[in-house]
Every structure is written in C-alpha cells, then in structure tokens.
Amino acid sequence: MNTVLRALSFRLIQAGGVALVVGVMSFLMMQAMPGDMAYRIAAARYGYDLVSADLADAVRAELRLEAGPFAQFLRWMGDLAQLDMGRSLVSGQPVWQEIAHQLGASLQLAAAAMGLSMLIGPPLGIFAGLHPGGWFDRVLLVVAAGFRAVPQFLLGLVLIVVLAVQLRLLPAAGHGSLAHFVLPALTLALGLAAASARIARDAMAAVAASPHYAFARAKGLTEAQILRRHGLRNIAAPLVTYLGLQFVMLAEGVVVVETIFGWPGIGHALIHAVFHRDVPMVQGTALVMGLGFVLLNAVVDLIVRHIDPREVQA
Amino acid sequence: MTASRLGWGLLVALICFALLAPLGDPLGPFRQSLTKALSGAEAAAPFGYDHLGRSMFSRLAHALRLSLLLAFAATATAAAIGIAFGALASWRAGWIDRALSLLADSMLALPALLMVLMMGVILSSTPLAFWAGLAAVQWIEFFRLTRSAARSHLASPAAVAATLQGFGPIWIFRRILWPEIGPMLRTTIAFGVANSIAAIAALGFVSVGMRAPTPELGLMMVELLPSWREAPFALLQPVLACFTLLLALNLIAGARK
Amino acid sequence: MTLLIATDITVNAGADCLVDPVSITLPMGQAVTVLGESGSGKSLLAQAILGTLPKGLVASGQLRVGLDAFDPSQPQGNRALWGRRIAVLPQEPWLALDPLMRGLEQVAEVHDLVAADTNPQARARSDLATLGLEHAERRFPWQLSGGMAQRLAFAAARAGGAAITVADEPTKGLDADRRDAVLALLRHGLQAGGLLTITHDLALAAGLGGEILVMQGGTVVERGPAAQILGAPEHPYTRVLIASDPGRWPRRAPAPKGPALLEAKGLTVARAGVPLFRPVDFSLSRGQILGVSGPSGCGKSSLGDALLGLMPHQGSLLRGPEVPKLGFQKLWQDPPAAFPARITLGTGLNDLILRHAIDRSRIAPLLNRLKLSADLLDRLPSAVSGGELQRIALLRALLLDPVLLFADEPTSRLDPVTQKETIALMTAIAAEHEMAIVIVSHDTSLLHASSDRVITLTPA
Asked: Residue C87: helix, strand or coil by DSSP?
C-alpha cells in the first residue's frame, strides 16, 4: 500500500509543478502583452464588454499594480491556486465554462483515436515480437518507422488530399456525423499505432526471450497457452505505462488535428486563443492538458501496480 | 548500418541544397511575378512558381535553411542544458537533484507545441520563440538520459576501481560515462532535431508559426493546398522536402531501445 | 526399466563438430551426471536431447524415450516430450518462474493444461505441501527465498507427470547449504524416475551417485560409476578436475609475520545506523592472507569497502604507518564490471601508466608471470574470458604496488580448474610482493586451504 501512496503523492507534487510552470508562463505572457496591464486584467476578470476605466482603476488599486511585478506575480499565482482562471478576453465567458464546452469534443476524438490505435498497434507488435527477426517483424519495423517520420499534420494533409479531395470519400472538415470522425481519428491513430506497435513488439520480444517463457515451454504448455497465461500479462505493464506517457503526443496531435479538420475541441480553442493573444484561455487549456497528463498517469500508476505488484526500487 | 548511412546521405544532400541553392539564384524567395503564378519550371526557377509567382526553388532552399538552423540551435541548446543539469543532479544529489527532477517531470506533462505557442506570446520574435520553446521541452530528455547513465555508471565497480587507482572525475567521465551516453546522445539529438522540424512545420501549417511571407515548409504547404488541383507538384515539393528531412533524421537515430 | 536411450548424439555447427558421439542410457531410479567445465559441450549435449539447441546448431543420433523413437535432428518433434515425459529444471529458478503469477497457479496450470488432471488446484496444493511450500501458494516468486523458488520450480517442472528429470547446472552460484538442499530435492525426484544432471559441481555429482561422464572439449574422456570416477580417476583431465575441488587443495604454508598493516578491534559496518554483522577483531600484516566467510547478505563486501576506506565503519580500525596513498586495491566478483566497458584493456592500462608515471617495462614480466598473452590488451573487456580478465585486474592492481588487496569472491564466476589456478597465482604473488590479501568467499574449504586465518561474520 505504501508504494501506491508514494506514487500518488508524486503525482500530486507533479500536478503542483505543472500548475507552477503554466502559471509562470501565463504571467509572462500577460506581462509581454502591449497596453495597460490593469485594463487587461480587468478584461480577463469581467470580460471586454464590461471593462471601463473605473474598473481598471479598481483593479489597479486592489492588486497594487504599482507594487511591482513580483507582487503582481504572487496575485496571479494566488488566483491560480484558487482555480480562478478568469474570463476569455475574446468571448468574455468564464474560461472554465468555455473549456467545459469544448473538452467533450476533444475527449471524443482522443478516445476514438486511442481506441483505433489500440486495435491496430499492439496486435501487430505482439505478432512481430513473437517472431523477432522474421519477415513480418522487418516489414513492421520499416512501416512503423515510416509512420513515425511523418508528423501528424502531414499525415492529415495527405489523407485530406487523397481521401477527401481526390477520391471524395469523406468530408475534409466539420463535426457532427460519424463520417466527420474518420479522418481526424485516423490521422491521430496511425501515428499512435506505429509507436505502440513498436513498444508492444519490444516488450513481447523481451518476454518471449525470458527464462520464464522458456520454462513455461519446458512445463509442456503450448505457445497459445503461454501467450495467454504468461505473455500478455507480462507485456501489459510496460505497454500501459507507455500509453500514459503517450498522452503528451496525443494532446499535441489533438491540437494540430482539431485545427486542420475544424474540430471544435480545446486544441482548436488553444490555437484560436494564441492567435488572439487570449492569455486566460491559453492558461486554461494548458492547465487542462498538463493536469490531464498527470491525472491519466496517476490512473496508469494504479493499473500498473495492479498488474505488476512488484515493489519498484527507487 | 546501411539505413543510418542512407539517412546521413539524405541529410547531407538536403543541407547542401539549402546552403548552396541560394548562391546562384537570380530571383530570391520574395520576388513576385503574378503572371507566372503556378507555372512550371524554367531556367530561372527550376522548380516552378507558387501561387504568387515566387520561385519555389528559392523558397524551398530558404525554408530548409530556416528549419535546419532553428532545429539544430534548439537541440544543441537543449543538449547543453540537459547534460549539464543531468551531471549536476547526479553529482550533487540531494535537493538539487529533487528540484531539477521535479522541474523536468512538470515540463514533461506539457506538449512541445504548447510550450512553443506560449513562448510565441511571450517573445516578440517568432524564431526566438521556436528556439526557446523547443529547447525548453527537449532538455528534459537529455537531462534524464545523463542522470540515469551517470547514476548507474558512477556506482559501478569500474568507477570505484578508477577511484582506487587514483583517477579523477574527469577521467571517469571521459572513459566510462561518455562512451556510454555518446551513442544514445546521437539518437536523442537526431530525434530532437526531427521533432523540432516537425513542430515548426506543424505550427506553420496551422497558421500560428512563422508568418507570411517568410518561406517555411508548413506555411508553404497551407498556402499551396488550395492550388492542389492546378499545380499538384508545387504542393508536393514542401511535403517531400519535409518528409525526406524527417526520414533522414529518423534513419540516423535508428532503433531506439 | 530403461527410461531413455540416447545413441551417438552429436552436435555440429556447420562443419565444426562441437560434441563428439555420446551415448547415454538412463534407467529408472538412477542418476546420470555429465561433469565438465564451461565450453566442454555438456550443456549442448542436454540441449540436443531436449531439442532446445540454439539456432545454427544441429544434432544427430537416435533417441528413444520409453518405447517411442525421436529424431534429434528434427527438434520440433521433441516438444511433445517437454513436461509430459521429461521435466526440465531451470538453471535460475528465480528467473524461470513467471513474476506475475502466484505460486499455486504456476503448478496448477501444469496439472490442468498439460496433465489434464481433474481438480488441478488440489493436486498442486498437495505437491506444494510435500515440498513444505504451503506458505508459497499465494505468494509471487519475488516474495520467495531462493530455496523456496527452487522447490516451486521443481514442483512446476514435474507436475506434468514426467518420469525423467533433466537438470542443467542446478547448483550454479549456490553456497554449500543451498547446494545440499538442491541435492536432497534431486534425490527426492529419483524415487519415481531417472535423473540426468549437467554440472561442474563435484560434491553434487558425488551426492547423486549413479553414472558419471566426464566431458572435455566436446568429448567424453572418461565414464563409469560415480564412486570409481571420483575415487580412482584414470584420465589426466579427470584428475585435474577432481584436484580442483577446494576440499582437496593442499594447505598453504603459513606466511612469515611481516610489518603490521591493519589492526581491527570491535569492527563492524552499519547501514542506516544498524550494524550488519557482529563486531570482529583481527590483525593483518604484509604477506598474510585473511579469509572472510559468512552467510550471503551479512556484509562481507561492506567490510572490505570499509577496509579500503570506501565506506564508514564502526569500532576501531588502525592502519599501519607506512601505507602508500594507493596501497589498498580491490578485485571484484564480476571481472567485466570492473573495467570501463568501451575502451580496450590496453588503453586503460596506458592511462594508468601515464597517470602515475609507472615504468612501462614492468608490464611484460607481469603478463608473463600471470600467464597472460600481450595481445589480450588490444581487446575490449567483453572479449576476454573471466579468468583472464581477473588476472588482468590483478596486474592492474600490482602496477600500483599495493600492500593490501581486497578480493571479493574473485573466483565465484570461474570454472573450478581456472579457480584453482587463479587462487594459487594470487597467493604466490602475495608472498612475492609482500602484499596482504583479504579474500571473501562462500566456499569455506577454499578459504581454509588458501588463507592464514579465516574469520566468519555472523549477522547482528
């Protein structure tokens, strides 16, 4: 039980670190913007439509903006610590509300991509890992390396040109029907599948070459029985751990893919916010992505701990 | 081995093109001649013209220059910082190690593109933002690599033996640590440069990276996408250049454990 | 009743013959032991019979198990034997058990899937109870002691109902107590079947009895009943092999008492504030050899590190007045780990010569004395055998004119004949150079034969 607590407290500290990094970056973004600081902060709090010179002065007095950047920084982090993200400088809506609105679409896309990549990557990787050095292994190595060399935006571009523009099979952009799902999910999934196939392949090859796999053969079990009873369980832990780390790649892919395909999620919102220098929204989306990574990896820690209860030596 | 050699060959060819092509180029990347928009190759513009009648040959070479320069600068900075911090963390241990590790773990949770985008808001110059943002993400990998290699090898019998024989930390670094992490660094650097190039192009493609009229691979792709049916070759050029560059770097990096 | 007849088994790698024709007959209730050093082809012989040869190696000959014939050159067919007719004991049981499966299930799955027994769980439970493993039912392998893991692997290997047991180096790296436990386990298996053992361990071979085959360089040089082979060996190699048993080494003549080097009173080493072993007293002077024994994990290596000044100690430890700065050197258990892995041995020695302005001409006579060939120095540590590497480590230490050498299990990874040569060389050099040696080993007969005095550490 002790190691579970230690893992969770590490994730908690990591979450604090993420918030600190995002907060510092956001504060610097705020500082770098042109114009009157008090006016921008007032806008971030109450929305552009409601800002007046009086409100800006009230903010100036309240935050003691004349006290210098360090005091301002403490205030900024204080708001963040209370999870007060302020309002979008563009829409005037509270940041949380905007993000809650868009998160669903992103999660749908991410889950579809993840599910699709799980159907493609690990089965191919496991098959290759059972016959390391064979023709299938070598072909998969080349194909996976090729897909990893293609960034997601380029893959999306190729898929749009081939499937949507040339063949007119699928809509290039938009949101709503199942057909809209295919291209963005496929774009994300192929890259993820290539990476997870590689991990599954290495894990499977290592397990299949391990003394306990050889001993299972010596015990008289068939290859299928060994794979089912000893193989899958032993590759599950590294694979799940890797999936947790892959979240960064997924989040990055979501930003690009949503923008290319006009998918109304937080990645799309982030690009918009950057374009319009909407710092509160940038901070909000960055925080959601960073904390999403931490949360997902906390869950991964628990799952891995359940699969593989060995005490990990620090 | 052959794959890595092929990768080096492609990379050197692209670098030569990026460096040498602008020397004998009469048009430059910005001169527009709208009458020649999307027209094919001719002596002055061997790769044809884009939608504004600018020389694709010239724009491609300048775009490659920009991507390669930014990517190498960012990765070199990241490697220097990461190795220095990694060595410091394993040498000093204690709270320095914990603080640096926490910083690395915290930044690990943030996607590279996000870091570059935030830097883009903070810093007024876009190339500077790419450099700082990419370096801020990539140092983590170098840090972790150096730290774990140093930890396992500094406690090894070979290092203890060296201490007993009167060798100092510099000898241990040069003869034990460096030969171990050197090959891994080559892989990490190649991947770092590849990721940087992909990030620069991706942000250009979604219009939050380099701004027009700068020649940049992603930006060129998004500009030429509407003209795909009229001039497919024009769009294919930056796509192929980007893909070849990334493929070369991935081949150099080889299979990473 | 004869369980297994192997006739004219050979192993070839392309045109090279690695194992010359060997025939083995294994009767019910009997042990056959193949004795030899690494590289003698004894493991290849077992793998040829089992059909587990590495890729590129081809076996030939005839194999009969019970009434059925098998073709060793077609190893796929042998798989039907595994678990059902032949039980294979793993070399390192700790690694051979699935780390993510509980003890009972590792045995029960064999009863279920291989032997197709009704009620496999109950059968497995009674197997474990027979071996005193009731506590291991719910535990994972990494929660078991080495001895328990060995017994669990034994139960799992034999659960398929095989009458023949094949054990390849079952006592590798074990101390005397654990070795006796393995011997008891193997004898237990003999009650209901036959046993083919591959080993370099003379005590194990003696304990098992039956027939012994001595292999050298892929050829059986001598075979016969165990008592005859071990008691009256005829082939010169068998004699060398038997003489390499530390129990038969000549005792060392006591060293003359030289100038005092170390004086320890109430000495112990603490980890996290807790002493590892009960305090010991000893004194050591130049030219003397001190043996250190004790159960594994009791802090033998830590004692050495304290003597070398690499680790803090508790109690009193006085060093002699004229100990030079680099006068204390060490030999490691795993020779390759003690060298930088990616530079040649010569490069490392050259750096040492430059660092301390050592006379380069000293190397050639030392190489000669240590029976090393000079071209070894052009190689990486991974390309040199363990015995040679340990002697190069000794050479490297001698260049610094040490007054004390701490040798931490210096020969436990070496073959017995190489072990004997290495220890003999070390003790002779101690006398020639007036160097003291502190030698750690789990083999008490080795210590008693080679040391002036032996201290035994007991856990605190």
From this structure: strand
